[in-house]
Amino acid sequence: MASVRAVTAEFIEKYHECECLWKINNPFYKNKQKRLSALEALLQILRKQDKNANMDSVTKKINNLRCAFKKEHNKIKATNRSGVGTDELYIPKLWFYDLIMFLSESDNASRSSKDIDEILNEIATTDNQVKT
A Pfam family for this UniProt protein (predicted)? Predict the structure, then answer.
């Protein structure tokens, strides 16, 4: 049986390759068949560690990795915003933080799409006010 770290690193690398699972602006992001085949590939990697792994295990693993990354990433952003000196900057403790850094791309993409929605709503509101 492979070590937990080795399997997790391989899992993260494969997850990075499967952009349809995490990159919102990927053309296959909403394609269920592509997403399912990507999850199947991740399942095969997870089975190296746990022979009884199933699709539920894959989604839990993805959610755990994403939550851990987000928590560390928010700590880093908080120290960068607060204006602390370079001696006091938060250094991530997750061993896989650099491996999973690609998730910050999807965070930016979702944030910009929300910004676009807000802008469109403001335009619609302004148009309605001008018409009345």
Answer: MADF_DNA_bdg
